[in-house]
Amino acid sequence: MVKVGFVSLGCNKNLVDSEIMMGACKEAGFEITPNAEDADVIVINTCGFINDAKQESIDTILEMAEYKNKKCKFLIVTGCLTQRYKDEILKEMPEIDAILGVKEMLKLPEVIKKLYEGEGKLQVFDNKATFVYTSSTPRIIATPKYYAYIKIAEGCNNRCSYCSIPLIRGDYVSRYMDDIIKEAEKLAKGGYKEIVLTAQDTTKYGLDIYKRKMLPILLQRLSEIDNIKWIRFLYSYPEDIDDELLNVIKDLPKVVKYFDIPIQHINNRILKLMNRRTSSENIKELIKRIRSAFDEVVIRTTVMVGFPTESEDEFEELYEFVKWAKFDRLGAFMYSQEEGTPAASLPQIDDETKVERYERILNLQRKISLEQNRKRIGKKYEVVIEGRDKNNFYIARSQFEAPEVDGKIIAFSKRKLLPGEYVTVKILDAFEYDLVGEVI
């Protein structure tokens, strides 16, 4: 039996795509292996969002190509990098045997069969195609048995001037709500306690097919499913977080009090150049509203430094804003010049300035994170056990930590605990990113 190994890079949305490709391969009769050295075919699902992600994808392709000197017969690459550079990638990287676009993932088994039949250097793309998976699409969940992602939409209509995602993924396409509910029910029956809704922009869910924002209603319906404990949604744009959504989150115990809001900047001129549909005033007001609406809440954001034409004063405005907002979690990244985007033609900031601004923001956020974490000392939280660290302490996560991206709770316990078990932990100490607690 042909063994197929997968490497999934980038975001959780990409991971869902990899899970679908694994499901398609298994249904076609292939065996899925977690070990590259055992694989007859290696599939790399790439990211192409910014330069660092592209470089990671290229490095991974070259690393996996080394296995062709051993057991691996074919190397297949898909994802955002191939969609973006389909005309160049096979020429530049002869190690690759086939490439697929982001909308052709279900054709992967067919591509593998063609490679074994002697066809080579395959390119499978259909720019007119659309692909939105459904609850009946084969899928092998790659996350631990207690949480799973549900992608509720494909593509993006925001058209931020720096972002290549719409060029790669196309327009925003929502999944039908009944189908999302069916998938969530299936996951709940399978023992998954935490559902993580993801999309390029979850807050615009439903606008295209229902002509109104439907995330609040979706959250309500998901909350009615038995056996689901936590419901989380990621990537919510500030202009679409309204009172209806805030009230639903406040009223539904299963919906975690956690907001992931990528704001990118606070200066109004830069926001306009970014084609962001909000303002400094609205962002600040939103943060006040969220903080006043909940007894305890976590706000995560991302900011961009070194956007074209960003002046020192405009960066200082962002710096002071971060100091004022005291985000519980903050990710920063340096602007990446992406060809084909409007921002790429603007006057660019030099790399040295970008790095300096990036380091200043991160150094500031380290202090803020420690300050915010210390506020949790003495409090008790329900947590899910995720495993043990090298010192044999338990690694846990509360509703205020999103999987894969946030810090952890390091927990002491007098009794043996299992991954996926929910227990109560009292926080005893705090660090910049992680907390220490004791199971009670």
UniProtKB/TrEMBL annotation:
It is an enzyme of class 2 (transferase). InterPro entries: Elp3/MiaA/NifB-like_rSAM, Methylthiotransferase, Methylthiotransferase_CS, Methylthiotransferase_N, Methylthiotransferase_N_sf, NA-bd_OB-fold, Ribosomal_uS12_MeSTrfase_RimO, rSAM. Keywords: 4Fe-4S, Cytoplasm, Iron, Iron-sulfur, Metal-binding, Ribonucleoprotein, Ribosomal protein, S-adenosyl-L-methionine, Transferase. One of its GO terms (cellular component) is ribosome. This is Ribosomal protein uS12 methylthiotransferase RimO. [4Fe-4S] cluster 1 binds at residues 11, 47, 80. The keyword Iron applies. Its EC number is 2.8.4.4. Catalyzes the methylthiolation of an aspartic acid residue of ribosomal protein uS12. It is found in: Cytoplasm. Its cofactor is [4Fe-4S] cluster. Gene3D superfamilies: Methylthiotransferase, N-terminal domain (3.40.50.12160), Nucleic acid-binding proteins (2.40.50.140), tm_1862 like domain (3.80.30.20).
